[in-house]
Automatic annotation (TrEMBL):
Keyword match Transferase: yes
Species of provenance: Serinicoccus hydrothermalis
Signal peptide annotation: none
UniProt-listed CDD domains: AdoMet_MTases, NAT_SF
Record domain N-acetyltransferase: where: 3-156
UniProt KW keywords: Methyltransferase, Transferase
Coiled coil: none
Lineage of the organism: Bacteria, Bacillati, Actinomycetota, Actinomycetes, Micrococcales
GO biological process: one example: methylation
InterPro entries: Acyl_CoA_acyltransferase, GNAT_dom, Methyltransf_25, SAM-dependent_MTases_sf
GO MF annotation, one: methyltransferase activity
Protein name: Putative methyltransferase
């Protein structure tokens, strides 16, 4: 990261204006040129990204502005709301993560403002729209921006497009209109410059897909397979567990299945939207649902804790994982079992997580189609070795879901721990590893098996 983020100051104005103009030049806002830095009447966060100024540049100061983010704060129906007024990155510094870093900093500063969402108005430019989608924004409203005249060729055979000049003035030369987006065809035929204006909205109280009610409602349709749940139900029977806890139970299918099998079941889940789906299912009354994280679990009550569909990979740092194991150990009775699955990093699954390879389409229960795919954003190595072997990476991907009414995109990071990392951390947390299977047929794990399906036992009293 060769840039620094800070508040914009008056001295930055010439460089700020240059960055904004150059950034907008390659977009449909090419003619939106300002001659002074934006000043807001209400409260605003006005950030810039700067780099040391190249030799020979004549604007004042010793830094060049290469990124701008202005966010204005206002009130709607008594609720605080934030709107992105400007986001711009100098063309020589695009694809360096500047806009994302500016947004992260603005959101960090706005954290205590009690905002439910942040929005932005933009047009259909591919760079802007894919940036909004990759940062958790969804399209919420659209309408048209229609231009008449100016540098754009007038495609209107009637010349004045049917609007009159005030008395005494000549024929209108330029016009700008807002139009409905339901049927843009006639406007596009008649005028050379028509843009779709879009309101992008990012919920700040929803940061992951399990928290979004629209996606929680589709989870079971997208994940119809039962091989993992069948495995853990058979295992609960095999180890003779009475009380079973499903940590990260999501939409509750396994928890309800375990209750049907006769176990006393607790389903723990941090995402309220997923828990709502679970609670509404037939058989849900037989399960005790707990909203929260592992620290919310009571001590010494479970015979078996399960974490399925790779919940264990959501604990990204060594500290988070160690902390979770402390709570799971505490929650288990002495001799109780812990069972979970984690993908084998040696198989490098993420290399196949491309939009082409992962694209699925299915009918939405309320009509229309759902299209979904994932795209890897970054793979970050974790430093150090375990038993002389490199540790597995943290992989961040964006999951896209296009619904009939919205394009949702949520980033998600998963840690891929090696078998040695899993075994060492479990041993340190007071567990004895009994078995590591490599796939759902229960066969022992090998160097290239897809999964590590771990069964461990709580040691100590
Ligand atoms: C892929 S889903 C799996 C859901 C369910 N176990 C299943 O088999 O379908 C991952 C779940 O883990 C939950 N989760 C994420 N972080 C968690 C944490 N720190 N503690 C507990 N659950 C977590 C998510 O909210 C989500 O519901």
């Amino acid at each position: 990261m060769g840039f620094t983020i800070r508040d914009a100051a008056d001295l930055d104005e010439p460089s700020w204006l240059r960055c904004r103009a150059l950034s907008f030049l390659g977009s449909s806002y090419y003619d939106d040129v300002k001659t002074g830095r934006t000043r807001f009447e209400a409260e605003a966060v006005q950030l810039i990204a700067v780099v040391p100024k190249p030799a020979g540049m004549t604007t004042p100061g010793d830094q060049e502005v290469v990124g701008i983010l202005d966010v204005e704060l206002w009130e709607q129906d008594g609720h605080p709301v934030a709107t992105i007024d400007t986001v711009a990155v100098h063309p020589d510094h695009q694809r360096e993560g500047i806009a994302g870093a500016l947004l992260d900093e603005a959101l960090a500063r706005l954290r205590d403002h009690g905002l439910s969402w942040i929005d932005a108005w933009t047009r259909e430019d591919a760079v802007a729209t894919s940036w909004y989608a990759a940062h958790g924004f969804v399209v919420d409203q659209t309408y048209l921006h229609v231009y008449l005249g100016g540098d754009e060729q007038r495609a209107d055979p009637h010349g004045d497009a049917g609007f009159e000049a005030p008395f005494g003035l000549g024929a209108p030369v330029k016009g700008f209109f807002h139009g409905p987006d339901e049927d843009p065809g006639p406007w596009r035929e008649r005028f050379a410059r028509v843009h779709q204006a879009r309101r992008y909205l990012r919920r700040l109280d929803i940061t992951s897909w399990p928290e979004d009610p629209r996606l929680a409602a589709l989870y079971d349709l997208e994940n119809p397979g039962t091989w993992d749940h069948d495995y853990f139900r058979a295992l609960a029977h095999r180890v003779g567990a009475r009380a079973v806890t499903d940590v990260g139970c999501g939409t509750g299918t396994l928890a309800i299945g375990l209750a049907r099998d006769g176990h006393e079941v607790l389903g723990l889940e941090p995402a309220p939207a997923s828990l709502d789906v679970a609670r509404a299912k037939p058989g849900a009354d037989a399960v005790t649902w707990v909203h929260g994280y592992a620290d919310a679990l009571p001590g010494g009550t479970a015979d078996l804790v399960v974490m399925t569909a790779h919940v264990a990979q959501y604990f990204l740092t060594d500290e988070d994982w160690a902390d979770a194991l402390v709570h799971l150990h505490r929650h288990l009775r002495p001799g109780g079992h812990l069972a979970f699955d984690s993908r084998n990093p040696a198989v490098r699954d993420w290399e196949r997580w491309t939009p082409e390879a992962t694209r699925t389409a299915y009918p939405h229960p309320e009509g229309g189609q759902v299209t979904a795919w994932v795209e890897v954003a970054r793979v970050e190595d974790v430093t150090g070795e375990t038993d002389g072997e490199p540790r597995g990476p943290v992989v961040t991907h964006t999951g896209h879901t296009v619904l009939p009414t919205a394009h949702l995109a949520y980033p998600e990071s998963l840690r891929f721990r090696t078998r040695a990392e899993l075994e060492q951390t479990l041993t340190r947390a007071g567990f004895e590893v009994l078995d590591v299977a490599g796939s759902w047929d229960g066969s022992p794990a090998t160097a290239d098996s897809p999964e590590h399906i771990v069964l461990a036992r709580r040691l100590g009293r």
